[in-house]
């Protein structure tokens, strides 16, 4: 292990305002998925560090929660300014550890930072209520208070935005936070913590622990001082966290997997739908929970649509995200690559056809998979049932509106769905019938800081973003007052 220390730069954890773990014996390497090269290492923290972080966050809560919203807003805006000033460096770091093209990483930095400025403002609008009482000598006041110490566990696909979408509303509400970034992408998180420190966010308010996820998660779930857990990642891990959170009835927000249908009706603007499908399917190489998974095209327009879609795909360039002109970077790791290969094999063995496969950068060592269109797909194939998280586009056809609604809803997931149609009444019929939390109607990029992001069914619990997102970090207290009148 000491060899790791000698060979690679160590990025320590951030606990109670200090950088810790550089001296400890165990480290985990961080790899660039575009080249397979190690770019640094992080301390492999566990129960001890998880507990230290909660100790710090719990101490800090006493003073942070008592600051005025204005004071917290001021510090959040300082953090926002520093992130903005350092966004090129942050984006480059993100591309190095995550693989997404630099232009997407820059886009993510703006998106991520948008949550900070938005919640710096929204924190000032945490209003209470007065409620008319049933007796003349009573008054009822309702106030909202921060839930306490929040544990945030985040994934590798959006190394900055998934942190700020949780941490910015939590801090604005007066909560303090302990964060566990994904092992594949901890460096962006640690850089964000460095800038929070520089901005003057007090020690203990924001802590980042890296290392053994199950140990860290368990320590936080068992600790009654952690009153809220907010998670983005796989449905499987989300269910485990929810089960264990029941032990001391923690509040839980979960943003989990998806299986987004993309529906193209026979009256759709097909060119617009083809461009939209490229955006929705291939953003982050298909590794987004709201990425299109299943494509349903009306049988009357399927051939014409596939030609247009293929033309758009031919324009995409696969390669190292740091290189100029790259549209699709590598997948996150070898497991992800193997899964995508398995899904294509399963489809072709069962009657599906590869009708387009883009150019693969054979000279690179990374985990690349070229954009691929599959046709002749049926709903029983693995690529239609599982979350693909990769650049393959399985196309199936349908005959009627009723049929496609039923097939689109036939999933345990309910995160995002996309519909392309030019008919107003049909737009309402379909969007209202879809059992999904996010609908893109003639729109492939519905994400924004001010919207309620979250899913139905096994896609999660709660909403992130917008005014909905801050409610997840607030308790409601009412005070019933008896008066002598
Ligand atoms: N909804 C979404 O945005 C995402 C969905 N996914 C889906 O999940 C699949 C698997 O991806 P994967 O990275 O394995 O996702 P995971 O759900 O395993 O990881 C997400 C986060 O949870 C942490 N984690 C994992 N196990 C535990 C645990 N027992 N207790 C506490 N924290 C835990 C991880 O830490 P560590 O990295 O250290 O293990 C990471 O920080 C993907 O292929 C995709 O289908 C994945 C990422 C995001
Ligand atoms: O995959 C995710 O969970 C991140 C969502 C990205 C977005 O907000 O669009």
Automatic annotation (TrEMBL):
Gene Ontology molecular-function annotations: succinate-semialdehyde dehydrogenase (NAD+) activity
Aldehyde dehydrogenase domain location: 19-479
Entry keyword set: Oxidoreductase
UniProt keyword Oxidoreductase, yes or no: yes
Active site per database record: 255, 289
Alphabetized Gene3D superfamilies for the sequence: Aldehyde Dehydrogenase, Chain A, domain 1, Aldehyde Dehydrogenase, Chain A, domain 2
GO BP annotations listed: aldehyde metabolic process; gamma-aminobutyric acid catabolic process
Pfam families: Aldedh
Protein name, UniProt field: Aldehyde dehydrogenase
Lineage: Bacteria, Bacillati, Bacillota, Bacilli, Bacillales
